[in-house]
Each structure stands twice: as C-alpha cells, then as structure tokens.
Amino acid sequence: MNLWKRLMCTARRRSPWLFHMNSGSCNGCDIEIVAALSPRYDAEQLGVRLEGSPRHADILCVTGPVTRKAVGAVKTVYDQVLGPKAVIAIGSCPATTNVFIDSRTLDGPLDKHLPVDVFVPGCPPRPDAIIAGVARAAAILAERGNNSPTTTVAIASVAEEAKQ
Amino acid sequence: MSYKIPMGPYHPGLEEPYKLDMICEGETVVDAELNIGFNFRGIEHLAETRNYVQVIALMERVCGICSFIHTLTLCQAMEKLTGLEAPPRAQYIRVVMAELERLHSHVLWAGIAAKLMGFKTMFMTCFALREKVMDVLQAISGNRVNYSMNHVGGVNRDIEDPIALVPMIDELEREMMRTVIPIFTTSSTARSRCAGIGVLTREKAISCAVVGPTARASGIAQDLRRDAPYAAYAEMKFEVPVEQAGDVRARLFVRALEIIESCNILRQALAKMAPGEISSAGEKLVFATGTATSRVEAPRGEVMYSVTWKENSRNPARVHVRTPTFANMPAVRWMVRGARLADTPLIQASIDPCYSCTDR
C-alpha cells in the first residue's frame, strides 16, 4: 500500500461520516443516535458527523426491522453511499426483527438485503454502545482500504449457484 | 402555474420516513399531501398473536418516545377487563413516569424545533438538558427508552426514595427557566421564525378535532389529566396552559409552560407518594369477555386503546390504538396553506408528529 492510500485510510478512520436511515424503527434507536451526538456523549470528538446525504457518508446506520415499503429504499441508499463503505445495524430490530418477528409487513432482518459489518444489539442500545459500534466500523473501513466490500449477498448468491 | 415539491420519504430533514408533497405557486404553498405507512409493522395484528404478558412488551415498542404511555394505556384497559386495580403507590409511580416522559418528549421537541429554525446551539443545549431527565428515568427504571415499568395491576419497580429525586427535578426546572424558556420566548431569532406562521384557528382546530398541545395552542382547553383523571392525577393540582394565537409560537409556549407544570406535578407526586404495595396482580389473570377502552394524555395528545378479549383466551381478540398524531396530522394541511416553502418543515414539526405511532 502506498503512502497516499495509507493516509486516506487513516483519514477515514478519524472522520467517519454517518448517514442515518430509519427502516421502520420505533424512534427509540433514532433518538439514541441523536443523543450519542449530543454534548454528554459527544461522538463528534471521534470525527463523527451525521450527514444529510448518503453520497457524503462513509457509514450507513440502519435502524428498524426493514418494512416491506423500506426494502427498496434501503438498497437504493446503500448503493448511493460511495465505497469504501460500512453498514451498522443499530438495535435488535435490524439484527433479528426483535418483537416484530413473524410480522407479514416486514421483510427483515437487514442482513438479508445488505452486508452488515457491525451489529449494535440492544432495544435500544445505549449511546455509548452506538459510539463503540461506530468506532469499530471506522476501523473496519480503514482496514478495507480502497477495496470494495465482499458482500454477504454476493456470497449467498454464489452459494446458491453452486448448489444448482 | 403550480408545481409540486416532494419531500421525503427518506429525507434528511425528516426524523421519520413519510412523504409530504407541497403544491406551490412561486414560494407560497397552496396545498399539501401527506403519505404515510412506511413504518407499518402490523403491530395491531401481531398483538392478536401474543399472550397477555407478551402484548405489553410488544405495545411498548409502538413508539420509542412515549413507550411508557402506550403500556400505561394498554394496562389500564386490561385492568378493566380483569377487574384488577393498581394500588395507590403504583398509581403515583405511574404519574411520575408519565410526567418524566412528557418532560423528555417536550425537551426533545424543543431541540428538533430549534434545529429546524437553524438554531443549532439551542439544539445542543436542549439535548444536554434532556440527558438530565434521562438520568432520572434511568434511576427509576434502569432503562433509557423502553422502561418496561407496567404490568396489569401495578408497576414492576418501586421508587425506593422518592424525596431523593426532588433535587434532580429542581435542578431541571432551574435550567429550563434559566436558558431554554427565555431563549424560546424572548429571543428575536426564535420569534421571527415562529410568530404568525402555521396558524390554525380555533374553528379549524375544532373541525379537525386536534388533540393535545396543538389544540391547547389554538385556544381549546382540553386535557385528559384534568377532564378525565386516570392514575393519581385526581390528587394533583396543576394548570392547563392555553394559548389563543394558534401559530407555531403558541405551540412552543404551550409546551414550555407544560414543562414547568410537569415539574410541579412531579414534585407533588414524589412528596405525597402513598406507602404500600406496588402490585395487586395474582399468579394468573382471568379476563372477562368484552371490550374495554382507556384514554391517556400522552405528550402529543390523547391516546386511546380499545382492547377486546374473549373469556379463557390468553391472547387479546383485538387491540385497537388511536394515536394523537393520527388526529393532528390532517390539520397540517390547513397550517401550511399560504405559508412560505421555507417555513413548512417547522410547521409540520410543530404538531410534534410521531409517524411510527400512527403507522404502527
């Protein structure tokens, strides 16, 4: 890895910009993300910023159990984030669909649709846990360098093709 | 020549996914269309497949901001069906929790309103202050958001030393009086952004049947805590703030005054807290056949639950929820008519919408 690439990786680890996406969450995790950015927990000291556009972001934070109406939007937003990118699933909902399991209007959990790098469990997770998750995702992002992520979706489809 | 500006559903300016289409002529909004349903998780149907313990955990997650209110309303309806009554101490603890939730919800709203005004410093101040409320909530329930405090016939956790919480409430009220309320009420920046915009007249408010702070800001003096007291509210003395103007500033005023009243109620409830048991529930619950309704004043207005049960059944036959945003939402259309496009985010936020409650 040349010097320029190494510098870029360090820069990415020190300033992970987030895009927050609500895929049918109950607002519990969403307010905890905002609380994590508030003066008490102060995620901004890690260089974290909540961005308005997915195209400016490095890390996609998804909350909620992924409702049927949100599936298309989740995929579109993921594609709009420029690589290298990381995905954090905040809360128990994107990880397992939580108490809403068996609901007919859900198409979750999230890792069915996107490759998830970090799961932050909890209903909702505490702001400290969210910050720890973001820090870990930033480290993954730096490790990943300029390589595009190996997607779990891609692996799954390859496995299916192999079966056939 | 009018044109349509779509906003959302996944717009950075919105806290939740919903779609607001503004039909504009130049800079002026002529009409608005609201599309919701992006948060539809089918909770009412799921409730029919859960037993009487699980349904409480499920309904707590209808909304992360007023999670206590939802379980309180559900448990009150279920108490009517089982014939149980929460003991006096549990009633007081319910009042304390409900008021703390109102405090944190209103401060959160003030922060979001400040952000939409472009007043980022105030946003940070509000969230720093909100953490103080969260500390009290955490001291009582052990959790920050989903408190799991209610069960049928009582509450799960006792407040062991109620008087020890009073200094925290005093500190909170002092901070409110010192920074947040003066800035929102006297600062010319805040006044220029909210005075006279998003007006909902008293007549329109009545015909739209709005509830909660939105109604009280349009001169309708309604508050279930006073009009149809539940829990221990009948023993509390408090004022119901009412403003006549009906604009965004009036809604801000009403919420600011409600924060002070909430501190007032909290002090009374903590001082007068009755001794005794916190639960009257036995081993097994026996439900009667029938439908029970319960109404509670949530931070955003009236929440109504209608619970139907069949005898010898573990699961409810039907749980119907009517949330305050469902009543307030149509009024946004009348508020934004004639407003400038730049004011619309603040106007639609002024009803404090919660679409995850409304969609369920």
Describe the structure.
The complex is a heterodimer of chains A (164) and B (360). By secondary structure, chain A is an alpha/beta fold. Chain A has one domain (2-163): Rossmann fold, CATH 3.40.50.12280. Chain A has six helices and five strands; from the N terminus they run αβαββαβαβαα. In chain A, strands 2-1-3-4-5 form a five-stranded parallel beta sheet, sandwiched between helices. In chain A, β3, α3 (68-80) and β4 form a beta-alpha-beta unit. Chain A starts with a helix and ends with a helix. The relative contact order of chain A is 0.19. Chain B is α+β, with helices and mostly antiparallel strands and 360 residues long. Chain B has a single domain (40-327), classed as Cytochrome-c3 Hydrogenase, chain B. Helices cover 48% and strands 13% of the residues of chain B. Chain B contains 15 helices and eight strands. Chain B has helices at 43-47, 54-60, 67-82, 88-117, 120-141, 166-186, 188-194, 202-208, 212-216, 224-227, 248-272, 324-328, 331-336, 344-349, 355-359; strands spanning 3-7, 19-25, 28-35, 150-151, 154-155, 290-298, 301-309, 318-322. In chain B, strands 1-2-3 form a three-stranded antiparallel beta sheet. Chain B has a three-stranded antiparallel beta sheet with strand order 6-7-8. Chain B has a two-stranded antiparallel ribbon with strand order 4-5. In chain B, a hairpin with an 8-residue loop joins β7 (301-309) and β8. In chain B, α2 (54-60) packs antiparallel against α3 (67-82) and α6 (166-186) packs antiparallel against α11 (248-272). The longest helix of chain B has 30 residues, at 88-117. Classes of the chains: A alpha/beta (164), B alpha+beta (360).
